[in-house]
Design goal:
With 110 residues, the chain is mostly beta strands. The protein has one domain. Helix content is 0%, strand content 42%. A hairpin with a 7-residue loop joins strand 6 and strand 7.
Length: 110
């Protein structure tokens, strides 16, 4: 992700694939109900990266409860070189228990 670019984290319980939506340089890997983390429109910073701390009690609409045993899919929309838009590679997070830090993440093959 380029440094100092606007970005939004997106989440869905359904993995999908849409090639170059709305002229994007990247592919969109979510499907179904997609939530956007409000207030998350932040810069990617000087290093071109970021972190997101999930608050399971404050989920973005229309996303439902994230519960033990489920897998959720995440990607990030961001501005790219030349003011075009792009998406990061997708990540699947498996919620293993209700205990903090009990999850497993893996990159999607899309």
């Amino acid at each position: 992700m380029p440094p100092h670019q606007l970005r939004y984290c997106l989440v869905s319980q359904t993995q999908g694939f849409t090639a170059n939506p709305a002229g994007s340089q990247g592919n969109f890997c979510l499907h179904g109900s997609v939530g956007r983390y409000n207030g998350d429109g932040q810069s990617s910073g000087a290093a071109g990266g970021f972190s997101l701390q999930l608050d399971l009690g404050d989920r973005p609409g229309p996303v439902q409860d994230m519960v033990t045993g489920e897998s959720w899919f995440f990607t990030t929309w961001h501005r790219d070189v030349g003011q075009r838009n792009n998406f990061t590679g997708g990540v699947r997070i498996d919620f293993l228990s209700n205990e903090p830090r009990r999850c497993r993440a893996g990159r999607l093959g899309v």
